[in-house]
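WARN no homologs supplied; continuing
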Amino acid sequence: MIHCRNCGNIINMGSGFCGRCGCMVAPENGQQFGYANQTPNAYGAWAGYQAPTKPKKNAVVITAAIAGAALALLVIITIVLLAGSSGGQDVDAPPVTRAPLTPLTAAELLDLGEKYLLDLNYEQALAHFLDVIEIEPRNVRAYIGASEAYIGLGDTDGAIAILQQGLMEMPENDDLQTRLNEIIIPDYEIRQTLYQESRASDGVLLARNEYQQPVFFGTDTRVRRMNEYFEAEIVSTNFEEFDYLEEAYYNREGYVYEEANAGRVAGYERIWKESYRINQYISFCASGYWDGLGAHGGFDMSGVTFDASIGEVLRIADILIIPPDRIEETLYYEYVEYQKVIEPDRAGLAQGNDGSGSYNNGFVENVRQQCGENAIFWLAEDGVHIFFDQYTFFYAAGASELIIPYTRFDLLRPQFTARTSGWREAYSMLLSANESSIRAMDGAFLWRGTNSFVVIEDIFGDSTPELLYVTLDDTYSYNLYIWSYENEAILLMDAKSLGAMAGAGGSFGVAKLTGDRLLTFSENGDEFWGSSTEVFELRSGALQSALSLGYWSEPQWEYEDYWDRPHIETYSRNGTEITEREYKELEADLNAAIELPLISSISNDSNIPDRFTGSPAKTYQETMALLG
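OK structure emitted
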């Protein structure tokens, strides 16, 4: 590509002059003038040259004579000049050649691109910015300039793509991310799209229905999808259900209008407003109020969150990191814990129908029904708000919202969690969010008492340590969680079962093996006994099972004296039955490979090896103090 040295204009190959300022084209990098690497045509001119018109017949003789005389004169002058210039010089000396000019630098191209952008010459601006990016792939100004040029050319997709390319080079650059957000999330305004009213004969307003919604500007597919959501939402709201217009009118005009309702306006209103925007996500919440002129009106909320890059509506499963089949159970548990925090004196609830005021009263049970994949939610500055319709359980009390803060790495997907300055801060947030379930282990029925179930240790050979902790859930089961950190907290193991408190007790052990592997062992039982051993390896950023060993011992129940008879024992490897000898050889190899015990809880009847003891596990309080 050739640039004019005077004005920077891009010049087509073969042009001898700049089409913008008229200056003669200087060759770059030794390139010849004119049409390089092309062959002469039938006229002896280079391809692209306009051939002269054929001369008239009566002018041929005169033209030939003039041309012959001129040629003879040119030969004489040339001989004279050569003879005069060669005196005293080496005729074999090489001819003087002109050094090629240096191509424009990235800084020069950038300045020209911004100049063209100001002149609204978007094509030239874009070409210059793209040249800069080719030279300097981490030049932020070039990416932003290119995006503005694309917008000027009406190519929104091109603007988004070039900014995303820049973010791949510089993921943490706030300027690029901000510019991308501005383009991805289209402009909109809140409009009143529905209004109905009814007035008495004297002009007094008796009833009113009103709906205000965002209306996005633009015609592309994603904009159309977002607008269609609100158009459908008006229909689903079913204003006919709240159509008190005629009723209120006849009450007033028929002189049956109750004095207590003087000044009240029947009807329903829903007003949407923006509650959150970051990256490509924008969220809205709507407050609704209806009044049927009864004892009191009603209040409700609604929410919607869009991925504006595609115009799609997100569901709660798109926000949470937990599997869909655990959403209802998890949100219900979080709601109960949230109630304990916000209203500890009343346990967050009015008295239930049974008068107990417990968390199992009617309202909370009704909340459970609203905790599924269709939960109503929106995003706000303080976290994810999940709304529960308290009017579906008459006269029930309790918080109508559950707020999940963006520090809950254990619940929210990474794109919705707060950024942290390092693994210490991230792990501190995780432990704080799970304090109650971790500290529940303190009161667990453990044969060899300990409350040290948190470990921060480098297990997989990278430079950042992993976080491990064990929790005790409502079913008295032990669950292992493992997190790593790479610019954000990453869940590697989600509630790996380590057995339960049952019968003669339960034991478990977690250890680091040689070769950057992880070993988990658990056993429990009473009249029967079972154990599970599993080895994990970190592959492509995920923990994957490399070996699984199982042992099961069960009485011969068909006999009355089963207790005095030997148990039936079975052994397995990766689900396939093996002999006792094979099992014990594998178990011995794993015990010998233990490099560092991590966490253990041992009962009196345990077969857990001693090498699981002596771990660096600490209590919750000790770990939080170390993290600062």
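The first strand starts at residue 2 and ends at 3.
OK
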